[in-house]
Batch of 4 targets.
Target 1
Amino acid sequence: MSQSSFSRRRFLEAGTFATVAASLQHRLEAADQASGLKGRINHSACKWCYPKVPLDELCRAGKEMGLTSIDLVDPADFATLKAHGLTSAMISFPFTKGPGDVKVGSIEHAFNNPEYHDLLVQIYEPHIKASAEFGAKHVICFSGNRRGMDEETGLKNCAEGLKKVLPIAEKHGITLVMELLNSKVNHKDYMCDKSAWGVELCKRTGSDNFKLLYDIYHMQIMEGDVIATIKRDNQYFAHYHTGGVPGRHEIDETQELYYPAIMKAIVDTGYKGHVAQEFIPARPDALGSLRQAVGICDV
């Protein structure tokens, strides 16, 4: 084959590939336009925020408005999500009764207490396995409340407890994700209430299967500097939650955060995961508020 023939063939192959790629890109863009979304943000919503909406209805309505996930569901919910072609970007936490009848695994009673570590291994192992079989990638976890514990001891205890569960998570391809929550308004005494503390814990676990849930509502209350923090520490954030400040209601002009700029900052980091709406609708039309929030965040 002559050099000129070879060059022509390579040119034609490249042209064919470019045509196929352009066609695929066109179809993807057309699909996004058909759903009314830009396709740069993967949208989710937290189940608990809609107690009056049956999960089946939330899934149906959510999918119509562009959701691909419902957050904070339990294994008992997996069949319903699967029936609607939805995933869960963040699986809820397992829990069991512990010493003094406390709810081990909950926000208040978790990894910063060594007394709970063995119980946490017992409850997280089947929960992680079920989540992986469903096809999920993230399972939530918590630090627990301080109860007089200093920051360093809390970091040490959490790291030790997490290192007992992380081999299970790694085996099943699951990332344990500790949520950053405010201790001023909603979760008094919660330990993992600052992004810097959570980032340090990520470093101490030494595992890519442990990261943070950066809750924008909670961190605005605790420390502000939301966009700067996302730009600086995004490699430690596996997931994002929204909420209006103050009040944790709709994320529109009634509150102090400007979510389009926050979403753009998230997109600009190269993040490919989900952003989940976790506000409590104040209006009668809860699903209408959810639809509005998806539109606000679709940058």
Target 2
Amino acid sequence: MQDIFLEYKTFIVFLHVISAVVWVGGMIAMRYAAHYSFLEIESPQKRLERIAHALKRLFYIVLPFVITLIVTAVFMIKGYGLSQSDFSALSHAKEGIWSVMFINLIVMILRRNRGERMLHEGNMVGAKNQIELIGKFMVPLNIILGVSAIFLGTYLSSNL
């Protein structure tokens, strides 16, 4: 794996960085641009429908990048030999952050899907409870974690 990394280092690091940017940037755009537009929709049902649809599109877009991020992280950890270096703890911290973000993403997808099902069943209160938590807490949490992981990655790469 180290040979592959050394051969394609620039490409692997690029894929890793662009994947992080798309994932975190997508969440920032959704939370701080689209979210406020959704609040302008007067009909609560239409608002929830539009939010559920936008989240579905966001998740479809970011999921391949999340997978790419994980795969490239493995290549970079092995390629740089981070597990056996002075940067082992920092590397594991970064892995932990992305892991928590990934679990949070899966829970967001499940909540969105449940919320959409409830919308189709006419359960507006249940749908709101499922979807509201995503925008208020789960996306902001992933944004904070993602920015932190990007900072750690920048620190790591500047010291390798």
Target 3
Amino acid sequence: MKIIDLEPGDARLADELLPVLRELRPHLTEDLFREVYEKGYAQGLRFSAAYDGEGVCVGAAGWRIIDNTSQIRQLYVDDLVTAEAARSTGVGRRLLGYLEERAREAGCRHLNLDSGTHRTDAHRFYLRERMDIVAFNFDKALDLD
């Protein structure tokens, strides 16, 4: 397996990574994804793609390194998804390991992510990977009228 970071404008983002990412984020169109990445890149957003031995994208991770008062420096994972056909083959573990290496290289004290309450299979995976449940995430949708 090969994991590479993809910069904004790379054709592989739309052609290879986005179809995998849409398994987690089905609302993303190609245009919306491009817009989010172009704006998010300036805020530290990065995307990494995992490729199998045949050169097929089988996993995607969106992440950023942030500094805050609660965890000082952390690598925050926005998105972590394995293509359905490749689940339970070690892709998620490899992507998470890759992100952990990136976090250590950047001097991060934590690797952190949020996971929807309905994603129980993902929760089992994170717990197997020795991640702890340390907080609740609260959300309020805002009208943009």
Target 4
Amino acid sequence: LDAAQIKTSLGKYMLSRFNCCVSAVRENLDEYRFNDAATELYKFFWDEFCDWGIELSKADKAAIGELGMIFKEAMKLLSPFMPFLSEYLYQELSGTKLQDARSIMVMRYPHPGERDERIEELFSLLIEAIVSIRRAKATIELGNARVVKAYVKSAVDLSAAADYIKTLAKVDEVEFTQQNIANSARDVSERLETFVPLEGVDLSGVISRLNAQKAKLQKEIEKLSGMLNNEKFVASAPQAVVEANREGLQSAQEKFAKVCDELKAFGE
């Protein structure tokens, strides 16, 4: 791994996250918290490198070699925990054999480099946008289908990340806006909102499902309201049962309101 050779935005992002992992692993090893060190490695490999690094490389082929560099360095970090597997993968990716090459067991253990908080923030937001568009599509039963267009409403300019969003959210065109988009499936996440236009989308199945949910929730609300409005029941039932019914009623009312809002968004 040579940080100077990491040129792509995705490569810089994964290198920054790797440096964060190195810091956490070394800190835990220094304190003899071996389980916590292993957990940090697991989170990096599974939740970051595999879950997003490899996925995002579909939109940035130039980053694949850089991810390979980072992965090989990560094998050194993993070595004390999984020595045989990490050694095999390191030599395999290097095109070498242990009999003729230096073992990672005697190589310098990784030291953390500098983190790039700006690039981490950018990728954190674009990942949030991808997940949000996927959720918006799922509400209209287009979860895995490619759609023509989606809108992203964010305080941060994500136009540089458009290719990543289009590829992983399966959208032909993504537009960045500061306005709410009417007649759209909408998803609100922590730092942004996304919209998938409903024009040309068959909503009959979605509306039928929502109406069925609405009817079921209506019956549940009427049942629980009737029990709680019955003074005899409230007076004689155990307090825990009464509280459970009150919580159930509140939950049903909140779900009912959400279903009504979704139906209203679809013009029902």
